[in-house]
Amino acid sequence: MTDNRTGGIPHQASNGGPAANPVPVGASYGSYGVPLSGPEPAAGLLKSSTGFGDNGHRGAFGEEFIRMLATAANLDVTKKERDRAGVDWQLGYVGRAGTRRFPAIEAQVKCTSSADIHGEHIRYPLKVKNFNLLAGQDYELPRFLFLVLAPTDPLAWSHATEDRLLLSHAAYWLCLHDQEPIPLDDGAKGTTRTVYVPRANLLTADTLHDLFAEDYRDLVAS
After folding, report:
1. Rounded distance between C-alpha atoms, residue 115 and residue 117, angstroms
2. Is residue 7, in this structure, part of any structural domain at all?
3. Residues 6+ apart with CB under 8 A from 136
4. Cα–Cα distance between 14 and 149 in angstroms, integer?
5. Among 16, 50, 59, 157, which residue is least crowded by beta carbons within 10 Å?
């Protein structure tokens, strides 16, 4: 059932790509359907807007990226107002007749414009504090890391026409319940742990539903 390449979880193959996701003029696709460039920004706009594209702005975009996917998947999305549990969103739904009622999962969302892509994985330096809030099995609900890849230029984050709203680029998931938290008594508190997010674990409206499978619930103590 498990697969070490995907954090102990069977991976979800990607079926996206340029044909399924039109991009603005000037954008080009790399492998796995991830655009390599976006539309040119308006001259002087970045300089005229304070804080446009800073870490807080990028983080907010990443969280809303996930909210849009979850809404398209007809999931209930609840924001954790106090950031003390390492959770940004709780996702859930009513549940089908004859199944577990009101199933839910939790997600920690990170957004980067400097993705370190190596073959089939994305290397991401996760703070040990955040790693420890995802690793292990002592949780009530399954938890996932959702990593959103965004263009460097904030003006390329979205492209709206009368036909569609396109958000760039993509989001991926990782489960760390099969890994042990890192002891903090050895000075590791301020360090990072590199995690390897499989590019096959592309988040879509369909694959979000896959994360509610009993396989993931079986990995936590509940």
Report:
1. 6
2. no
3. 176, 177, 179, 180, 181
4. 15
5. 50
- The encoded tokens of residue 106 equal 């939790």
Q: Of all residues in the chain, what percent are helix, strand and coil, respectively (each to 5)?
A: 20, 25, 55
* Positive or negative: CA dihedral 196, 109, 21, 93: positive
Is 15 among the domain residues? no
Nearest to 148 by CA among 85, 40, 70, 209: 70
CATH code of the domain covering residue 155: 3.40.1350.10
pLDDT digits (tens, 9 = 90+) for 164-214: 998 999 999 999 999 999 987 766 666 899 999 999 999 999 999 999 888
Q: Which residues contact 6 (CB under 8 A, 6 or more apart)?
A: 174, 175, 198, 200, 201
> Is 176 a domain residue?
yes
Q: pTM for the full model?
A: 0.75
198 bridge partner residues: 121
User: Rounded distance, CA 78 to CA 67, Å?
Assistant: 9
Question: Do the beta carbons of residue 195 and residue 174 sit within 8 Å?
Answer: yes
Query: Residue 110 contacts by C-beta under 8 Å, 6 or more apart in sequence?
Result: 59, 62, 124, 126, 130, 145, 146, 147, 148
Q: Is residue 14 part of a domain?
A: no
